[in-house]
C-alpha cells in the first residue's frame, strides 16, 4: 500500500487578545496550527525572524528602572521611592510598559502629567537596556522593514484589530489577518442551555427554565460538591473526554482530582502554583538565620524541611535540643553539636563543616542592615546546593521530576537574588530584603498531585480557555475574583489620550476576556451543571453567570445537594445522576474512665519520681501510656510556650548564679549578677524572648527574676542558711525503690537543718493553697528523700518567681523572715505519709488485676481515699486537672474528643 506525504505549507495562527496558551482537544489533529494570546503570537514571530531570546526577568527590569529614577531629584515619586523603592519602581515600570504599548516613545511632553514627565527625564538620562514588550515588537517591525519575510500564514483574530494596543496594530497590519467566524451556540435549539447561550450572545434572550440540558444546584460544603461531581462522572465514564470542569479555585480542583483518583477515574491533572514548596523555603529561611539573635522557630522550620541541606540524622538531634532550650548556642545545643561532631560520629569533620557553613555564618543584630556581600554569599550557597541536589534527583528519575524542577527554580531564585542584592547598594534592611524575596519567589512552582490522565475531563480556570466543542460543562463555583482596577486616574487618562497616546483604561482588555468567555460557553453542546458553593456568596457573581441568573431569577431556586442525598433523589438532576449508599457511621470513641488491660502487660517500675507518683495516683491510665506502653507524641517539633519557656529559663539563670553553692552573696551583688547572666544567656537559651517583638515581656521577666533573687537571698540570710546546691539530685528511696528527682534549691544551716525550695514561675494562689490543704506532694516527695539521708525532714517552701513570693508551711517552716509567707498548713512529713498511704491503697489496678482508671474522667465519689491530694474535686468545668495538663493522651482517653 503506497503512502502519501502531505505537505503543510501554511501556518494557521488563531489568536485572541486574552493572554495565555490554549490546549488542543484530546483526540483532535492539528498540523502547523498555533493557538493563544499575544504572548504566543510574539514568540512565533520572534522564532520566524530569528529574534528569539529569553525575556528579561522582571526583577532585573525593576532594579534597572529604580537606578534610573534616582537620577531625577525632587520628582513627584521621590518620597515614595525613598519609602518603598521596590513597590514604587515596580508600579512605574508597569505604567511605563502600558504607555509604550499605547504608542508613547518615552519622550517628554508638556501635555503629559508631571509623573510621566519625570519618568521621561529619568529614562532619557539613563536609558533602559532590558527590552520591554514594545521594544520586542519594534524589533519585529524593524526586521520586517529590513526585508525579512514571514512564512505563509493566516492570522485569525477573535478580536478586532481596533481593540489591540497601537504597537500591536502596526505588527498585525504587516500580517495576513482575518476575522474569526462567529461561534454559533452549539446547544440544541429550544433547550435551556441554548437559551442561556443566546442570553450571553444577546441573540434572543428569554427566561430560562431548567431541563436536562441545564441543571443548577447548591451545596453547603465544598466536600459535598466534589463528592457529587465525582459521583456523577463515575456514572458515565464514557463521557469524561467530552466533559469540561470550569473551576477557578486551584485548591478545589485538586480536591476534585483526589475524589476522581479514589474512584479509579482518570484525573484532570489539576495544578496549583505554590510558593510553599519545601525547596523554595530553603532560601528565605537560610537568609533569616543571618540576623541575630536567631529566631528558634525559623531555625526549627529550616532544620525540619523535607528537602534540607542539613542531613536528617544531624538535623533532628539539633531540633530536639531546641525543644528543650530554644536557642542557637544554648547548653543543650552545644551538647548536641559535641555529640554529632565527636571523633566517633564525625571522623572526617564533614558534619561539623556543614553545620558551620549553614548555621554559624556572619550575623547582624536585628534591626540593622545587612551587607549585600553577605546576602550574595548566602544566595550562592543556596544556589549551589539546590542545583547539585536537582542533578542528583534527576539521576534517580521516576516520579521525582517535580522535585527537580522545584530545586532548579530555587537555584534560579537564589542566583537572581544574589545579583539583585548587590545592585541595590552596599547594605539592605530586613524589610528591603523581604520585599526582594517576595518578588522573586512570587512565581512559585507548579504542583500537580495527580497527573493528567488520558480520557479524563478537561479542567479550565476560565470559560475563556474552552477552545473546542464539548458535550458537557460542569461549572464548579459561580463566583469570581475581582478584576484588577485601572491604575489610571481619570484626569491622567484624559491628558494622556489628549497627547495622542491611545491608552486603554482596561475596558478593551476586559471586553476581550468577556467575549472569549462567551465563545467558550457557546461551544458546549449537551448539558450544563452549575454548582453554587458557599464561598460564592462572599464573592461577586461571575458576569456570565450573573446574566444567566437574571434570566432564572424569580422562577426556580437551586436544589440543595444534601437534600438530594437525604431523599435518595438520584435522578432529580439527570443527566447528572449518582448512586446513594447508606452506611452506618461509627460514632467517635466515648470517654472511657476504666480500661481493661491484661495483668501480664502491667509491670511496676524499678524507680520512682515525684511526677511519676503524682500521675500514678492522679491518672493511672496516663501512667500506663507513658511509662509502660511508652507512647510518644507527634514527632513534629513544638517549642515550649511562653509560660514553660520563662520558667525553664529562670531556673537555668538561678542555676548558673548559685550552682556552685557556698556562702550567700550580697543581695545587690547577686541582683547585678543575675541581670548580667540574664542578658548574656537570653539570646542563647530563650531566643524567642530575645526577639524585638518581645521587648516588654523581656523587661518584665528580667525584673521578675531580679526581684525573686532578692527575696530568696533575703529569706535565706535571715534564716542563716547557705546554698548547698541548685538542681541537687535527690537521694533515698520510696516504696522500696530508688527515688529520682532534682531539688531546685537545697539550703543548709549550720545546725544541719536543710531547706528544700521548689521554684515555680507563676501561680501564687495555687501553691499557697497546696500548702494550706496539705497537698504539696512534690515537696513532700523531695523532703522524704532528704529525710532518709539526714534522719529528719527538711523545711520546705515554694518560691513563686513572677511574684517574688516565698510560701512555707507552718508545720515546718523555712527559718527566717524577710517577707516570707508562713501558710497555715500541716507538716510536710504528714503530707508524705498521707500521699504514700493513698498510693499504696489505690494500686489494685497494678497489682490486683483491676481495670486501669482514668481518674480525671471519674466522678469524685469514685476516687479512692487520698486521691484528692492530686485531684481537685471542686474543679470548674472549663479547667483541667493537673494530671491532664501537658498530657499527650487526651484523645485516647476521650477527654479531648474526636471530630
Quick summary:
The protein is an alpha/beta fold and 899 residues long.
Helix-strand blueprint:
Elements lengths: L10 E5 L17 E4 L1 H12 L8 H12 L8 H6 L1 H17 L12 H12 L7 H13 L7 E5 L8 H7 L4 E3 L12 H10 L12 E5 L3 H14 L7 E4 L3 H13 L9 E3 L3 H11 L2 E2 L3 H8 L8 H13 L6 H10 L9 H10 L4 E2 L4 E2 H25 L4 H24 L2 E2 L1 H12 L3 E3 L10 E3 L9 E7 L2 E2 L9 H9 L8 H16 L1 E9 L7 E2 L1 H10 L6 E2 H7 L26 E2 L12 E2 H9 L1 H9 L13 H17 L8 H19 L9 H24 L2 E9 L3 E2 L2 E4 L1 E8 L4 E7 L3 H9 L4 H14 L4 E6 L4 E5 L11 E3 L4 H14 L2 H4 L4 E2 L36 H4 L6
Parallel strand pairs: 1-2, 1-3, 3-4, 5-16, 5-18, 6-13, 6-14, 8-9, 14-16, 20-23, 25-26, 27-28
Antiparallel strand pairs: 7-12, 10-11, 15-17, 19-29, 21-24, 22-23, 24-25, 26-27
Helix pairs in contact: 1-6, 2-4, 2-17, 6-7, 9-10, 11-12, 11-16, 11-17, 12-13, 13-14, 16-17, 17-18, 23-24, 25-26, 26-27, 29-30
Amino acid at each position: 500500500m503506497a503512502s502519501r506525504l502531505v505537505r503543510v505549507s501554511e501556518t494557521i495562527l488563531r489568536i485572541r487578545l486574552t493572554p495565555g496558551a490554549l490546549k488542543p482537544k484530546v483526540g483532535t489533529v492539528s498540523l502547523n496550527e498555533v493557538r493563544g494570546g499575544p504572548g504566543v503570537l510574539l514568540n512565533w514571530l520572534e522564532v520566524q525572524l530569528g529574534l528569539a531570546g529569553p525575556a528579561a526577568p522582571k526583577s532585573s527590569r525593576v532594579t534597572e528602572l529604580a537606578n534610573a529614577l534616582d537620577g531625577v531629584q525632587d520628582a513627584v515619586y521621590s518620597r515614595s521611592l525613598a519609602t518603598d523603592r521596590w513597590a514604587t519602581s515596580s508600579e512605574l515600570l508597569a505604567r511605563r510598559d502600558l504607555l509604550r504599548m499605547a504608542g508613547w516613545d518615552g519622550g517628554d511632553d508638556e501635555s503629559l502629567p508631571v509623573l510621566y514627565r519625570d519618568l521621561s527625564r529619568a529614562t532619557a538620562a539613563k536609558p533602559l537596556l532590558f527590552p520591554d514588550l514594545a521594544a520586542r515588537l519594534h524589533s519585529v517591525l524593524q526586521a520586517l522593514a529590513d526585508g525579512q519575510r514571514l512564512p505563509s500564514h493566516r492570522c485569525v483574530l477573535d478580536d478586532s484589530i481596533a481593540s489591540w494596543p497601537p504597537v500591536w496594530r502596526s505588527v498585525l497590519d504587516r500580517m495576513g489577518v482575518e476575522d474569526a467566524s462567529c461561534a454559533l451556540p452549539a446547544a440544541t435549539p429550544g433547550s435551556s442551555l441554548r437559551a442561556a447561550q443566546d442570553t450571553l450572545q444577546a441573540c434572543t434572550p428569554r427566561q430560562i427554565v431548567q431541563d436536562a440540558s441545564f441543571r443548577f444546584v447548591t451545596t453547603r460544603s465544598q466536600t459535598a460538591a466534589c463528592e457529587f461531581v465525582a459521583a456523577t462522572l463515575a456514572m458515565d465514564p464514557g463521557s469524561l473526554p467530552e466533559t469540561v470542569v470550569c473551576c477557578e479555585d486551584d485548591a478545589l480542583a485538586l480536591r476534585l482530582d483526589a475524589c476522581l483518583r479514589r474512584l479509579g477515574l482518570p484525573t484532570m491533572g489539576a495544578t496549583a502554583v505554590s510558593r510553599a514548596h519545601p525547596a523554595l523555603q530553603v532560601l528565605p529561611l537560610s537568609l533569616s538565620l543571618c540576623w541575630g539573635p536567631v529566631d528558634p522557630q525559623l531555625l526549627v522550620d529550616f532544620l525540619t524541611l523535607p528537602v534540607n541541606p542539613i542531613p536528617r540524622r544531624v538535623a533532628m538531634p539539633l531540633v530536639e535540643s531546641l525543644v528543650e532550650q530554644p536557642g542557637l548556642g544554648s547548653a543543650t545545643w552545644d551538647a548536641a553539636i559535641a555529640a554529632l561532631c565527636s571523633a566517633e560520629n564525625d571522623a572526617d569533620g564533614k558534619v561539623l563543616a556543614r553545620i558551620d557553613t549553614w548555621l554559624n555564618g556572619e550575623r547582624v543584630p536585628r534591626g540593622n542592615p545587612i551587607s549585600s556581600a553577605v546576602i550574595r554569599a548566602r544566595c550562592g550557597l543556596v544556589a549551589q546546593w539546590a542545583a547539585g541536589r536537582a542533578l542528583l534527583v534527576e539521576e534517580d528519575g521516576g516520579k521525582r521530576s517535580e522535585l527537580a524542577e522545584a530545586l532548579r527554580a530555587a537555584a534560579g531564585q537564589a542566583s537572581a537574588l544574589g545579583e539583585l542584592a548587590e545592585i541595590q547598594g552596599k547594605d539592605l534592611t530586613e524589610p528591603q530584603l523581604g520585599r526582594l524575596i517576595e518578588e522573586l519567589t512570587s512565581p512559585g512552582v507548579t504542583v500537580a498531585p495527580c497527573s493528567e490522565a488520558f480520557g479524563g475531563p478537561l479542567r479550565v480556570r476560565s470559560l475563556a480557555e474552552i477552545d473546542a466543542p464539548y458535550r458537557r460543562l460542569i461549572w464548579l463555583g459561580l463566583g469570581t475574583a475581582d478584576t484588577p482596577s485601572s491604575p489610571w486616574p481619570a484626569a491622567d487618562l484624559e491628558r494622556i489620550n489628549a497627547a495622542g497616546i491611545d491608552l486603554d483604561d482596561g475596558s478593551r482588555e476586559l471586553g476581550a476576556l468577556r467575549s472569549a468567555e462567551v465563545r467558550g460557553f457557546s461551544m458546549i453542546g449537551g448539558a450544563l451543571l452549575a454548582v453554587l458553593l458557599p464561598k460564592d456568596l462572599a464573592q461577586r457573581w461571575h458576569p456570565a453567570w450573573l446574566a444567566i441568573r437574571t434570566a432564572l431569577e424569580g422562577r426556580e431556586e437551586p436544589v440543595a445537594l444534601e437534600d438530594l442525598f437525604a431523599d435518595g433523589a438520584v435522578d432529580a438532576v439527570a443527566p447528572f445522576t449518582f448512586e446513594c449508599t447508606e452506611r452506618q457511621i461509627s460514632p467517635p470513641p466515648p470517654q472511657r474512665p476504666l480500661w481493661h488491660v491484661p495483668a501480664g502487660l502491667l509491670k511496676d517500675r524499678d524507680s520512682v519520681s515525684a511526677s511519676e507518683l503524682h500521675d500514678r495516683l492522679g491518672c493511672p491510665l496516663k501512667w500506663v501510656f507513658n511509662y509502660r506502653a511508652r507512647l510518644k507524641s507527634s514527632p513534629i517539633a513544638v517549642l515550649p510556650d511562653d509560660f514553660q519557656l520563662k520558667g525553664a529559663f529562670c531556673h537555668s539563670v538561678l542555676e548558673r548564679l548559685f550552682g556552685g553553692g557556698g556562702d550567700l552573696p550580697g543581695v545587690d551583688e547577686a541582683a547585678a549578677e543575675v541581670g548580667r547572666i540574664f542578658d548574656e544567656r537570653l539570646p542563647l537559651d530563650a531566643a524567642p524572648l530575645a526577639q524585638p517583638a518581645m521587648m516588654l515581656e523581656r523587661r518584665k521577666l528580667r525584673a521578675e527574676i531580679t526581684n525573686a533573687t532578692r527575696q530568696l537571698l533575703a529569706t535565706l540570710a535571715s534564716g542563716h542558711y547557705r546554698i548547698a546546691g541548685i538542681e541537687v539530685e535527690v537521694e533515698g528511696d520510696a516504696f522500696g525503690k530508688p527515688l529520682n528527682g532534682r531539688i531546685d534549691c537545697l539550703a543548709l544551716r549550720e545546725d544541719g537543718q536543710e531547706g528544700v525550695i521548689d521554684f515555680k514561675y507563676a501561680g501564687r494562689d495555687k501553691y499557697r493553697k497546696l500548702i494550706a490543704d496539705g497537698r504539696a506532694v512534690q515537696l513532700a516527695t523531695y523532703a522524704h528523700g532528704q529525710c532518709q539521708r539526714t534522719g529528719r525532714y527538711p523545711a520546705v517552701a515554694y518560691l513563686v518567681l513572677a511574684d517574688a513570693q516565698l510560701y512555707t508551711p507552718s508545720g515546718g517552716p523555712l527559718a527566717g523572715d524577710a517577707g516570707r509567707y508562713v501558710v497555715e498548713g500541716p507538716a510536710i512529713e504528714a503530707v508524705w505519709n498521707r500521699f504514700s498511704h493513698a498510693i499504696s491503697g489505690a494500686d489494685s489496678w497494678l497489682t490486683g488485676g483491676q481495670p486501669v482508671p482514668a481518674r480525671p474522667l471519674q466522678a469524685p465519689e469514685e476516687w479512692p481515699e487520698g486521691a484528692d491530694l492530686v485531684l481537685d474535686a471542686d474543679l470548674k468545668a472549663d479547667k483541667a486537672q493537673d494530671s491532664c495538663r501537658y498530657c499527650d493522651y487526651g484523645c485516647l482517653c476521650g477527654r479531648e474528643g474526636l471530630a
